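Page 47, continued from p. 46.
Same chain as before, 185 aa.
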Amino acid sequence: MKKTPRGTSVGVDDPYAFVDRCDHLTDEGRCRLAVERPQRDPSFARDRAEAEYQCVFADEQDATATDDDDAEPEWERCPHFRCRRRDRVCVRCGLEEHRDAHSDERPLLEEHHLSYDTGVETDHEITVYLCRWCHAKIHDSWARLTDDVNPDPEAIAAREDRRSREQAELSFESAATRREESGSN
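Result:
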């Protein structure tokens, strides 16, 4: 199983198994990084410009077109690959985030890195969201992201507490009712 620089588990053998696409890839198959930030890697940007900014994999797929259209790109070969999940759901237990905009409480979900600085020129950022409880289990034990688990009871209680406070704030109370309750006439 992959490890952090401190030696704790990240919960997976292959971080790329949790990747659906690169954050820099546009719907048209172009590399947004090469277009918007060419100064980050000028030679990479020049190569992409010569290929009309097509993603590295678009070039490869055209050159090696086969009958296997379902083949997954080998994302780890791109020097600037990045995949950060945007959906605010724990990938291990399915707990959904419930945030209180006016509170300093700790979020229910935390960003979890599946890849770390390895000292190689092409470090990749791959992150998912885990609830605090699953996050602790991943780093402190042998737990894996692919475990079939339900949300921790404490996690459900914390989420429901936030929901009930939100519902109490949203309830409508007329001025007349408030006036009657305060005893004013």
